[in-house]
């Protein structure tokens, strides 16, 4: 069939809205991966979504996903990964949204795309064998500790200290809002190693959670993401060997800023997928729900709401994919990642909110799952860097 751009002048070209177009960043392998993750999510995760809201999701999810090869999609085969590219991680983030459990998607993403990438990039061979390999198999669960009770956005204000003592480091301090904090076997920790060195005074450590002095203080209750566990952690004279240092001593701030770029883009992809999920559910509902003798989707006002939402979702999707393309091709597009993260988080919350509105009272009820999507997506305007911090990064990138 002639494409629309090359059609002869006398051809009748009509749009086919039922065609699911593949974006150019994805190839056939990505699409096959998408299908296989989607089928796993549909059969093995989604049926438990309601239950896991009450209990948090069980650890077997990691073991099972490790067995299926989903925890190391973009890691090299020599460490048990699938040797795929960054786009494979996007596919995972997008498909996990179909489990209808934001907390589950977040718990898995923290493991695959937040805590383990620094080990892959900055870790020694011994650290990769000890932590990355079992994490890819789903035998060890990872968490990432940046935020503290007195410092979140202001990473330079972190107070948790590691002090050298012979061949060991002694860590004291606390971390909060730590996803997977209760179930994790280890935590990738950002600490201050030289309080007088400014941005060059931070380092990363990998700390086993069974080390004496590591305390899980509190399981935190939250608005959404109920299927994930969120911890307040304390470190009281936690002694770790010198080889627990991850990456270069004094370069932890830069290491974690690098980590945050990948995390933000994956989060943005999750936002687009979450918004699409809300949209799809709501579109189905609008076709069924009757009012004043017609389905509510037939009111022009509702049709336009869908048009607005679809346009927002598509704009965010294009930003995520184009930025992912830059990242994949070796750029370090901090400005564009910040823009994608900001825009995707905002539109996701707007879309979810509009979907509640279109559902009417049903949108407020748990049964329809729309309120959960809204609660879960709301985190994205805060986590991994707030909207305000994204705006500041973007604004500063223009020399302001
Ligand atoms: C459910 C959940 C899971 C999380 N998981 C993890 C995790 O696994 N690991 C981890 O390390 N962290 C995690 N976080 C923490 C998250 O990244 C932080 O909450 C976030 O970075 C914001 O930090 P804060 O909460 O300390 O807010 P604050 O920094 O106290 O900010 C409060 C307000 O002030 C604004 N503000 C701050 N600085 C500026 C500025 N310079 N200009 C303008 N406005 C500003 C913020 O935008 C915000 O509106 C999680 C948080 C939640 C809620």
Question: Which secondary structure elements does this structure contain, and how are they paired or packed?
Answer:
Blueprint lengths: L27 H18 L3 H7 L4 H8 L18 H11 L5 H14 L1 H6 L2 H13 L4 E4 L15 E5 L2 E12 L6 E7 L9 E7 L5 E6 L10 E12 L3 E2 L5 H37 L1 E2 L2 E2 L4 H29 L5 H26 L1 H4 L5 H9 L8 H10 L4
Bound molecules: flavin-adenine dinucleotide.
The site of flavin-adenine dinucleotide has 22 residues, from strand 1, strand 3 and helix 13.
Small molecules (ligands, ions, cofactors) in the structure? flavin-adenine dinucleotide
- Strand line-up of the largest beta sheet: 1-4-5-8
> What's the main sheet like?
4 strands, mixed
SSE series: HHHHHHHEEEEEEEEHEEHHHHH
Q: Kindly report how far apart the N and C termini lie.
A: 51 Å
- Beta-strand fraction estimate: 5-15%
User: Can you give the mean pLDDT?
Assistant: 96
The total beta strand count reads 10
In DSSP terms (H or I, runs of 4 or more residues), the helix count works out at: 13
Q: What best-fitting shape do the alpha-carbon axes yield?
A: globular
Poorly predicted segments: none
CA gyration radius, whole angstroms: 22 Å
SS-derived structural category: alpha+beta
Helix content: 40-55%
């Amino acid at each position: 069939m002639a494409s629309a751009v090359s059609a002869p002048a006398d051809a009748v070209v009509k749009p086919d809205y039922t065609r699911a177009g593949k974006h150019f960043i994805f190839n056939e392998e990505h699409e096959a991966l998408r299908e296989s993750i989607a089928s796993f999510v549909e059969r093995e995760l989604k049926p438990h979504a309601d239950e896991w809201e009450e209990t948090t999701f069980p650890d077997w999810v990691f073991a099972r996903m490790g067995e299926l090869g989903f925890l190391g999609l973009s890691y090299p085969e020599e460490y048990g990964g699938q040797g795929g590219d960054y786009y494979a991680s996007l596919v995972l983030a997008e498909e996990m949204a179909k489990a209808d459990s934001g907390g589950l998607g977040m718990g898995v993403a923290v493991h695959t795309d937040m805590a383990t990438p620094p080990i892959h990039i900055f870790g020694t061979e011994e650290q990769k064998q000890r932590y990355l390999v079992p994490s890819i198999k789903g035998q060890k669960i990872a968490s990432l500790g940046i935020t503290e009770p007195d410092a979140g956005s202001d990473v330079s204000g972190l107070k948790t200290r590691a002090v050298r003592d012979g061949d060991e480091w002694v860590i004291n301090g606390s971390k909060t809002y730590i996803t997977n904090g209760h179930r994790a076997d280890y935590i990738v920790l950002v600490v201050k190693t030289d309080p007088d060195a400014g941005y060059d005074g931070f380092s990363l450590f990998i700390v086993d959670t069974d080390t004496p002095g590591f305390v899980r203080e509190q399981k935190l209750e939250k608005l959404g993401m109920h299927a994930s566990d969120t911890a307040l952690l304390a470190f009281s004279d936690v002694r770790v060997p010198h080889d627990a240092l991850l990456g270069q001593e004094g370069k932890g701030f830069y290491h974690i800023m690098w980590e945050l770029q990948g995390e933000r883009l994956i989060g943005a992809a999750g936002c687009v997928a979450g918004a699409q999920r809300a949209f799809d559910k709501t579109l189905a509902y609008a076709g069924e729900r009757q009012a004043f003798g017609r389905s509510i989707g037939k009111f022009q006002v509702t049709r336009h709401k869908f048009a607005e939402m679809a346009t927002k979702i598509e704009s965010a999707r294009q930003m995520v994919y184009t930025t992912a393309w830059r990242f994949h091709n070796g750029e370090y597009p901090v400005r564009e990642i910040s823009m994608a993260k900001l825009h995707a988080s905002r539109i996701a919350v707007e879309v979810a909110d509009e979907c509640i509105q279109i559902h009417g009272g049903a949108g407020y009820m748990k049964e329809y799952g729309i309120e959960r999507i809204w609660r879960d997506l709301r985190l994205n305007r805060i986590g991994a860097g707030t909207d305000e911090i994204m705006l500041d990064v973007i604004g500063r990138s223009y020399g302001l």
